[in-house]
Write a structure and sequence with these properties.
The complex is a heterodimer. Chain A contains no helices and eleven strands. By secondary structure, chain A is mainly beta. Chain A is globular and about 40 Å long. By secondary structure, chain B is an all-beta fold. Helix content of chain B is 0%, strand content 50%. In chain B, the strands form two sheets. In chain B, strands 2, 4, 5, 6, 9, 10 and 11 form a seven-stranded mixed sheet that branches. Chain B is globular. Classes of the chains: A mainly beta, B mainly beta. At the A-B interface, β5 and β10 of A face β4, β5 and β10 of B.
Chain lengths: 120, 107
Amino acid sequence: EVQLVESGGGLVKPGGSLRLSCAASGFTFSSSSMNWVRQAPGKGLEWVSSISSSGTYIYYADSLKGRITTSRDNAKNLVYLQMNSLRADDTAVYFCAKSLTDRLDWFDPWGQGTLVTVSS
Amino acid sequence: EIVLTQSPATLSLSPGERVTLSCRASQSVGRYLAWYQQKPGQAPRLLIYDAFNRATGIPARFSGSGSGTDFTLTISTLEPEDFAIYYCQQRNDWPRTFGQGTKVEIK
């Protein structure tokens, strides 16, 4: 069974940094593209970033580009989202999602998410 | 970026009814459109991908259609567990984008 468990969320002050992790199991992680999607409280879904299986290709949402870095460790079955210069509007649940196939395609399945709160 | 517009914003329906949700793209996405279902406090779940393919384990009452800029998600007979928010998403281009969602609520 595919499992994705996000961690690293919490309360951070504006301008601060946070690194989110997503631990994957139940599938061949090194062959799978991975994704981050966020959801502000009471709002819709917003794609954040995608990373190919080898980490060669990485894509970012324009609204976050320059402030975030996505990476992965295929030996540890982990994908990371490093977030810097955090702002109040970055407050959201951050979901990790596997790509449906080995390509950068659909998001399936999703983890349960980790809440990031940016507040002074 | 490709903007996805979903309509209506909210649907108030009773179990047993037929549901039709719409998603319109600001430019063609071919067949690269998916539908997700999200219930309160849960992560989204993939329902339909590539416009009309049902994801693993998704009941046959869910179906998708469309291509280009106009897409539809149909629930043939609404079950109590189907009351949720539905999002469309495109993968034709970067950035990936979602529609704003349609809430299907109990009438």
